[in-house]
């Protein structure tokens, strides 16, 4: 079958929150823009991750767009932390409200992208052989969108059902009376386990490394609080924009070590009762001082022992690692689920999984018969989705070759050797260590300004300079090196969760300083870029 090549000024790959806003913004500026989305509708991560209990751990009034005052005033969230279905409804509402779907092609996966140097045009091919051309490409492919399915021997032979939390069936899963096994104890598992345990006949949790979790203390939206925020929404957004993670997490500007044990305990207790990620901001040195961090981890260990009836299970659930080094989880009733008689915790660091059999899981100590196996095994984060596309820049250089030793780019936005190619919330930008929607809007706005600059100055090509790219990578690493997070654990922030992936701390720490750098580059006629 022959296809004609569809041509656009800009092609956006992905129609999650990043792709949707890019379509909205660029279309309004008069660019012809097309988004290509693998899923059947908008929503990105919230389209795919429909496992029971999936919920955001950033406050609803903050985890939402701010580009439209009418939108943020008129949309009402029902809970402090919105559930996946409500966030997906919100995404659909935004798509309807701004008529975005007319510029999005769904159920289409980009397979290859090639930069044609002579014409200065990107040529894109889908899995079905459809072809597109665009002057610029914007990768809105998401940070946690490439599922990690570990290479368990025998997985295909399992006779029951297998699900990955990151690709959950739309019709849901019936657990009633079933023997369910779940591998993993990260954020996804920690949300799913309490709910599945209530429905399943039995639930066996295969834990390799215990994860730290704090209670969400989720509740119905406080209407008075909502009214107060909406009364001063723009100012509230601006205040958050200037915060370290673009979040209102009430940072306590003192050390955990300079106060009495009672005062420290009271602070942690207050944060525990408030719930959520603000626990990380209990003191200003939890991310940088191992002794300060130990006070936080000891507090959580004590809580786990208070909640769990069996001290041996409590010991197994106490993470031996640095709190916050792997992303802190936020739960509703996670720890107490292990007091249920139908829930079993299996330590697969002591007794590794040998294989998946036709009937369940075999560790080197025992066999577990299962009807349903859930892989809550996370993602090839930040680079996985980008590297799953065969992207070829100048002189035949592929992104896979360029990033063999870890991702290299400038401002987390642009890769030398890949002109007119932008990544939204890519490695080297605050991304997952900031409020993602704020980070997305900042990136899209920066790219939109850049495209206007090119248009106004009759320029057709922009590309990061290698020297500036190298300096940027060094800076990102240098900042991360000041924390306990860079080398303190095997986190997905560093790629250490994927066998064979280069170990590099990927996110840029500190949203405000990052924004300043982006602004200064633009204000200085895109210093660090080659333009022509
Ligand atoms: P994750 O945090 O990477 O957790 C994956 C889990 O699977 C870990 O416990 C890991 O153990 C385990 N695992 C992986 N391979 C394994 C193997 N071969 N054998 C045994 N265990 C294995 O993934 P996630 O829970 O999907 O979360 C990823 C990120 O998504 C989160 O950190 C968060 O940023 C985001 N997320 C957010 C929310 C929210 O907003 N509330 C909810 C869900 C996800 P090890 O630790 O030993 O590697």
Automatic annotation (TrEMBL):
InterPro entries: FAD-binding_Monooxygenases, FAD/NAD-bd_sf. SUPFAM superfamilies: FAD/NAD(P)-binding domain. Its cofactor is FAD. Keywords: FAD, Flavoprotein, Membrane, Monooxygenase, NADP, Oxidoreductase, Transmembrane, Transmembrane helix. The chain crosses the membrane at residues 7-24. It comes from the Bacteria. Pfam families: Pyr_redox_3. GO terms for molecular function: monooxygenase activity. Belongs to the FAD-binding monooxygenase family. This is Cyclohexanone monooxygenase. It comes from SAR86 cluster bacterium.
